[in-house]
Queue: 3 jobs
Job 1
Amino acid sequence: MLTGLEEIVEGLREHFDALDRAREEAYVLSRQVVRAASVVIKHTHRQEFDAAREQLAEARELTHRMLAALADAPELRYGGFVHDSEKEYCEAAMVFAALTGQPLPTPEELGVYGPAWINGLSEVVGELRRHVLDLIRTDRAAEAEEYLKAMENIYQTILSFDYPNAISQGLRGRSDAARGLVERTRGDLTNALQAGRLERRMKELEAKIGE
């Protein structure tokens, strides 16, 4: 009745063993990708651009090694920790590009899956908010307006990707988070600009009184 069962099971076991080995190798590399991407963003915010560029190259190499480890394991290529680490790499590359005035790298240039790229773009909003707040703290609120516009542009872009999560891999939730970040940043920047105008008017008034 079960003729051939052992041979079938043995073949499946070999396949599962191969998948497990590939997963273990890719998982270790994925953690390294996430760490490298985090360091890229840290250096970029500190304007340590040479260090950021060097770390970004390492993140790229690690990402490609991770994907190469899964070349024979398409079951593991999409989603899960692979998608998450690709997303972090994309975010780091785009934050570096945005804060150094370079064109955004395409998914093809980064060698990543499209959903990872668009989800990475959604998380750039949070890093741009951080940059806007840094500019406000250093009395550069007018300059920060351009970054708020970029945040709004990203939000409108990801909002247009109205697909089920099985396709967009969580983008809908990230678009909701991006909207909140944009709204809070707009409020912070508006307050800073108003305070700056008030301060200038007071100085002008003081100057007139002094005359």
Note: The longest helix spans residues 5-45.
Job 2
Amino acid sequence: MATYHGARCKVCRRHGAKLFLKGARCYTDKCAFERRAYAPGVHGQRRRRKVTEYGVQLREKQKAKSIYGIYERQFKNYYQEADRQGGVTGENLMRLLERRLDNIIYRLGFAVSRSAAREVVVHGHIEVNGKKVDIPSYLVKAGDLVSVCEQGRSVPEIRASVDAKAGVGTLDWLELDPKKFTGRVLEIPSRDRIPSPVNEQLIVNFYSR
């Protein structure tokens, strides 16, 4: 996952969409995008110039990279793999991104954001099918059991995140057991079951130029 050290709320404002990069804060009235839903900077409230077709496609790609926290080279590799798989390239791309371990940790509620999920994975708190995995980009498969290791269950941030997630539930293609700190990937979802504000066809058009 790409490490971004700037203000995450500015990223949402730059893309003109709420990307939920700061976890629980994004659901409160403290969210900067809710208070200032315009581009950052002194000229942010001015009327934007018309964006070219290329610019629209580029912006959508950058937005997807920001959501999943991925560098350019790795994102392009995902696209090339999605294209090789056959079928609908855009849907293949989104399914690959959703299979990343850091994303699954976030979706299950073991971390409040994908950046926090990356730290949880890198610190060795996650096991897949009983084996420790510390690679955020690891691709899970349908049927995989993802769990927080015994030591990780005492981490206050993980416990708080799991408790919060237990009250709202999770996606229908994931199964969460908050008491055991485990989750199972029931299946790899179709595009309409992936709640990401991305127009993947624009990304396909960008790379198909």
Note: The CA atoms of residues 48 and 84 lie 37 Å apart.
Job 3
Amino acid sequence: MDSSELQKIAQHARGTREAGTAIIVASALLTVFLFIPLAPKALPTVPVAVSAGPDAFAEVPLQAEAAIVYDLATKQTLFEKNADAQLPLASLTKILTVYAALTTLSPETPITISAEAVRTEAPRAFNEGQVFSLADLARLTLTASLNDGAVAIAEAAAERQNRSQNAMLAGAALALNLSQTFAVNGSGLDVNASVSGSYGSARDLAVLAGALVAEVPRIAAATTASSARATSEGGTTFDVQNTDPMVGSLPRLLLSKTGYTELAGGNLALVFDVGIHHPIAIIVLGSTQKARFTDGTSLVAATLAHFAGLASL
């Protein structure tokens, strides 16, 4: 066999090997496409504006000891200052009290104002023996921060659970994984000059406020009006004023709750809709009685600027 024939055989062998390799590669690729499932389509999410601009929260002046801006739609923290510090809650406790009661009682459950409730500190509005549905009493209590209403609601929920009031409130906090929240009473009133009626963090309160809005939006919505009205089962009508003077000026508000005691200072909880079904919680703890409102409005403005991609409005 001469050299030219050997060369032809070698060329044929190389061609055969290359063709075989191509077939193997093609078969492997076909196997990948046939037997590896395609990735599932992502579920639709709430559209969130991503700001490539300056930090809208960089220059926000706050007197509060702690604060948070928490995106309830995406579970992201947009801004925080000592957000996990455990601080006195004052009347923000009433959000927990109402939420806890509604996990046990239906909104139509009749609640009787007790002798203990009418002996609590002001603000209060009721007389012993008056009866309201839980929903109506909750609306009045949250809007005007009524201590007698909060005590009556906490008593009824604790009795239904056959537990102490602080155990009932602790159960609700545990169910929401509020690791820094602890309540001695349902009103948030200071126990004495050194012990608050409840403690919690700005982060916990953001989650709690969001949960109340999600579970009972109509009750939460009552706190966004300048006043609330309800009638007892005996036919007595009550009109109460909102403790938050800003409710008429804040955009798309879903919840507003104030709190103030000597130990807590000025507290504020807000939930508002920054877009379609895109709630944002803003919590201010340890401010002053007046500055809690300027702190809150500053954080609302910064949040709106953040989603607009601006440094400020």
Note: The longest strand covers residues 253-261.
